[in-house]
């Protein structure tokens, strides 16, 4: 479904949520199932929470920069999954047997796999940038240089560093739509 989704007061919430579920539920569920370590119930709960957030924030679904609401939904779902995982990790562990240790080790492996996959996605996306944009983003975002330090290192004015960083991130947003809100 395109950004032209209509979430108006004249329609019922059930119809609005059903349309989002029908058009985007499968890919959203697949992502959240992976992020929930295969826990179908947790993934289903996260899908529902994501759809409720979409219903609560129709302005995000009408943003002109999206060709589809799917990237927004996937980003919200991913963040909800991360928040849920952090909440579970913040609670003290329940007293259990050896099986709990095995499950915890599986979660750690899944976290590592997600981070590695994200790093590969970003690395490949950065390769698509022009050398000028890539050099600025590497210095500023990956090496932590200030705008002034990057300008000195590259021999360009600070304003050019800012401009190239802006347009470089904008290009990455197009290449990495599922990560778009993480790139700011």
Structure description:
72% of the residues lie in helices and 0% in strands. Helix 1 packs across helix 2 (40-56). The relative contact order is 0.09. It has 184 residues and is mainly α. The protein is elongated. It has helices at residues 13-35, 40-56, 58-61, 70-90, 98-127, 131-142, 147-154, 158-175. It is built from 8 helices and no strands.
Outline of the structure:
This protein is mainly α and 184 residues long. It is built from 8 helices and no strands.
Descriptive tags:
72% helix; mainly alpha; 184 residues; elongated; disordered C terminus
Show the helix and strand layout.
Layout: H1 13-35, H2 40-56, H3 58-61, H4 70-90, H5 98-127, H6 131-142, H7 147-154, H8 158-175
Helix pairs in contact: 1-2, 1-4, 2-4, 6-8, 7-8
- Let me know the average pLDDT: 76
Q: Can you write the helix and strand succession as a string?
A: HHHHHHHH
SS-based class: mainly alpha
Strand count: 0
Biggest beta-sheet profile: none
Shape: elongated
Helix coverage percent: over 70%
| pLDDT < 50 stretches | 1-10, 180-184
Strand percentage lies at under 5%
Radius of gyration: 20 Å
Distance between the termini: 26 Å
Number of contiguous helices: 8
């Amino acid at each position: 479904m395109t950004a032209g989704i209509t979430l108006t007061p004249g329609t019922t919430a059930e119809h609005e949520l059903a349309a989002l579920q029908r058009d985007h539920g499968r890919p959203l569920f697949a992502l959240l199932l992976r992020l929930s370590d295969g826990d179908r119930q947790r993934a289903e709960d996260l899908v529902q929470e994501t759809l409720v957030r979409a219903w609560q924030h129709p302005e995000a679904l009408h943003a002109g920069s999206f060709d589809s609401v799917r990237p927004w939904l996937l980003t919200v779902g991913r963040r909800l999954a991360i928040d849920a995982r952090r909440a579970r990790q913040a609670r003290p562990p329940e007293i259990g047997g050896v099986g709990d240790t095995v499950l915890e080790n599986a979660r750690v492996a899944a976290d590592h796999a997600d981070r590695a996959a994200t790093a590969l996605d970003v690395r490949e996306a950065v390769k698509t940038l022009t050398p000028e944009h890539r050099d600025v983003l590497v210095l500023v975002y990956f090496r932590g240089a200030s705008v002034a330090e990057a300008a000195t290192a590259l021999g360009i004015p600070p304003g050019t560093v800012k401009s190239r960083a802006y347009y470089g991130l904008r290009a990455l947003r197009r290449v990495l739509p599922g990560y778009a809100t993480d790139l700011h």
